[in-house]
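Protein record
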Amino acid sequence: MNILSIQSWVTYGHVGNASAVFPMQRLGCEVWAIHTVQFSNHTGYGAWKGRVYDGTMVDELVEGLAERGVLPRCDGVISGYMGSSDIGNAILAAVGKVRAANPAATYCCDPVIGDIGRGVFVRPGIPEFMRDQAVPAADVITPNRFELEYLAGREVRTLADAKAAVTALQATGPKVVLVTSLDTDDTPDDAVDLLAADSHGFYRVRTPRLGLDINGAGDAIAALFNLHWKRSGSAAQALDLASASIYGLLKRTAEAGSREILTVAAQDEFVTPSHRFEVVAV
């Protein structure tokens, strides 16, 4: 399988492509990475060096792939944080070129907008671009609860609310949805829920809360869920495998007291997760 991953890159640590690429490679997937930024470290540190690339560079790199004649072998595109709507337009143009070369190719959009407690943390115009253009163009989306509420335009307090919001988004385009960091009135204080949906129904996995505030986990689980879904065709199976791997990764990170997720040190979690959780139809 060949996946075109268009995301940010950091030299130190693991967010964006630096979090998503290696897990896919470890599972035997070829990843064609295009970086939208090159930073020394993720912005959670408060200071960083580097620069944001523009949409033109993304266009040029995709055109270079087209000239190599490899786009018909691209099985899908995945995108995450978009530094500007210019980058977003370039990503959607890339999706269009890939689909034209391979009609079976899919697009997974991790609609990075913000989070509960932090609010919107992307540049002006990006939330609207995600809602109005990127999400409707996607086959798979992986919002967190905050992003689900924004994209669906409704409050999510209960599992029923979450299902209704997912159903509303499915009607706009994406048929497969993974909701991460789902904390509702139905979720115990010591747990975190993940909710997945496809044409067969809704599925929930509940994992222990680790109390870890870390960057890059969302990028990794989006990549893992998308890859497992493409291989199995099942949101339930993708949820099972992706949630197990991410929990193992985060547990190892918490035990080590690391500021960065241990993407390399805990790489066996991607292949043979040390913990598995029940997938419940809801």
User: Anything to note?
Assistant: The two ends are 31 Å apart (CA to CA).
